[in-house]
Amino acid sequence: MSDDSGRAGWGDGLRFGFGTLSVLRVRVERWDRAAAGRAMAAAPVVGLVLGALAAAAGSLLAWRAGGLPGAVAAVAALAALTRGLHLDGLADVADGLGSGKPAEDALRIMKQSDIGPFGVLTLVLVLFAQISVLAGQFDASTVRGALAVLASATAARCALALGCLRSVPAARPGGLGAVVAGTVSPAAAAAATAGPVLLFAALGALDGWSALRLPVAVAAGLGCAWLLLRRCVRRLDGITGDVLGAMAETAATGTLVALALLG
After folding, report:
1. CA distance 173 to 123
2. Which of 74, 187, 192, 225 has the most other CB atoms within 10 Å of its CB?
């Protein structure tokens, strides 16, 4: 890994972001903390692209087969587009935190390739929650379902910027977490969140929602991710790549549940 003395451009950050957060083939020219900071601040752009692809898949199936198949298609598409990266992180964090062991042992458990009972249970519940909410949204209307997919996918990547704030340390020296930890300024994180929120305020009117419904749901999802971040920092002394993945899935699920509660 090179140092971060050279200033990275947004192009470097977007290539880093798409290269690490998706299966989309891009040429990553810089793998350093400067590019990582740009990537995490630009992660919502990745979320918008992946969310749009998943929303298209879900909408097509919902139109032809109903809300439940559409919801499954959207969730499956997001998992495929990320190689299940965030879901794997969620399961690992659930096993680590659920073990009740000290930080060093919890991190060792998270690094293992197998999934324990806490991880399996968490994955089942989270996927069930996501699919059930999206099925309801797609049954209400195809547009509403598509916007729910787009909002949850983007909120998930907004959470990455929060997890990489300069005040948040890495839990261990190696891995993706160490590369991206502490690389995002508060101003960049705020901008990364504000842009999508304003976009969703405008898009909410497409299906009769109030301008605040999607932004409030995204804010609720990010609040859930922030609570998980605080818990992980206290228990693990920092973040890892798994923690960021868990934050992403938590933000996505929290956004969807908030949408369901808002009606």
Report:
1. 27
2. 74
Q: What is the pLDDT of residues 37-79, one digit of tens each?
A: 889 999 999 999 999 999 999 999 999 999 999 999 999 999 9
Look up the pTM and report it.
Answer: 0.93
Residue tagged 């206290």 (tokens) = 234
Cβ of 194: how many Cβ atoms within 10 Å? Answer: 13
Residue 108 is encoded by which pair of tokens?
């060792």
Q: Could you identify the residue written with the tokens 């900071």?
A: 37
In the chain, where does DSSP find H-type helix?
A: 10-21, 33-41, 43-65, 67-81, 85-98, 103-111, 117-140, 142-163, 176-180, 186-203, 213-236, 241-262
Euclidean distance between CA atoms 128 and 34, whole angstroms = 37
**Distance of alpha carbon 198 from the chain centroid:** 18
- Give the CA dihedral 20, 21, 27, 29, nearest 10 degrees: -50
Two structure tokens written together for 239: 């973040």
Cα within 13 Å of Cα(192), Cβ side: 32
Give 55's strand partners.
none
Distances (CA, A) of 142 to 1, 67, 207: 45, 8, 9
- Quick: pLDDT tens for 95-134: 999 988 999 999 999 998 889 999 999 999 999 999 999 9
CB 254 within 8 A of CB 221: yes
